[in-house]
Amino acid sequence: MKKFTENDIFVNTIKVYPKVRFFIHSGTVLFNDTRNSGVLLNDFLLGATGENPSPVPAGVIITEDGEYLLTEDGTFIIIE
Amino acid sequence: MATKKPYLFAPKEASLGALKTISTSQFVSSDYGTILSGSDYAYSSSISADFLLENHDDSKIRALKNTLNSYRYLSNHYTFSSSYGDKSQQTMRLVSIPSIFYGSSIKKGSISCKWYVTGTLIAELQDIKRNGELIQIGPSGSNGSGSVAGVVLYNEGFLLLTGSWSLHNTYTDTFESDLTYYPPAWKYYMNTGSNGDYLTPSSSFDIEFDGLNYIQTLTMMAHAEKGELNHSNNPTYVKYDPNIKTTSTGSSFLVENSDKEIKNILKTDYIDIEPKFEKITYISQIGIYDDNKNLIAIAKLANPVRKRQTDNFIFKMKLDI
Prior knowledge:
The complex is a heterodimer.
Chain A: E1 9-16, E2 19-25, E3 28-31, E4 34-35, H1 41-45, E5 60-62, E6 68-72, E7 75-78
Antiparallel strand pairs in A: 2-3, 3-4, 5-6, 6-7
Chain B: E1 7-11, H1 24-29, E2 35-40, E3 48-52, H2 59-63, H3 65-70, E4 81-82, E5 85-86, E6 92-96, E7 105-106, E8 112-117, E9 120-126, E10 133-138, E11 148-153, E12 158-161, E13 203-224, E14 247-249, E15 254-256, E16 281-289, E17 295-307, E18 313-320
Antiparallel strand pairs in B: 1-2, 3-6, 4-5, 6-12, 7-13, 8-9, 8-13, 9-10, 10-11, 11-12, 13-18, 14-15, 16-17
């Protein structure tokens, strides 16, 4: 039997159920009530799908970590 | 601003392997070691719907044969070929949902497919038995209510809709490419057309479901014991007195003045009585250190917490990893 001490670190897995909605009309698909102009990938991965995910500025790439990365001549710059 | 996306590339080597998009003449004329690049990798993911006509024998459906048959124990409607029909021959709508939208799988029983005609709900499908059968549940009294219109593959993210009964008494539209007017049926679900001739603007469709995702988390506890963490080096922790110098400095030293009095910030309801002195701090952030005492992270509180000498706090910090 393990006795917990003050400095123990707990690693757990939590189960989340992100809500997803597609609305389709006349050749247009609305994702979660927002016309999909770019949605953060980790919005899904973290189960934090917002009603209005912020659109991605032109020229900005989003990594799978959800970071915004600006690329210019192969140099990656993290913007906040 | 130049934007670079990941792209395919392969150098010309002695094995003479080349990307399909590189022409033979370009490949032959290139020197060995030349990097030949192909197209950009796809950087988007979308829901898609394929309409498969009768006797289609489509490769996408054939690829799902073993998967469908593996769920036979849940419902006979999954069976690839049975008394309910042969899926390689039936007219059907195959809806494909990429896993980026749901994570590990779609939550069983959470899916709902609705069909609206000029804003009025004409039919709805749900998996009320949670066995993957998409059953028409409404509106009450609608044609085909209670019938199974298709199946859903929760782990793989596919919907196969084969229901062919009419969902409306009067409304018809050009759901097929032959431009003939047909009444709405589940096999035409998500058909909106792609050009002026095929558009079906009266119909709109709604798919809702819950994804299922597992997130690793790390939880740490930070302890603020009684009588500890009640002192601060913040300049505002001591009382301001213009007559007392805060620090003495020289060419090789800087000394804090020990005569500075700690400010008493204990709350009192009286203005003429100084309350009994007590050391109070406000904890505003918690530093997280590694084994070598390097500061690796800082957790900030939304509101600083008042810490009296008699208080004993445990701060719980959780991090998604």
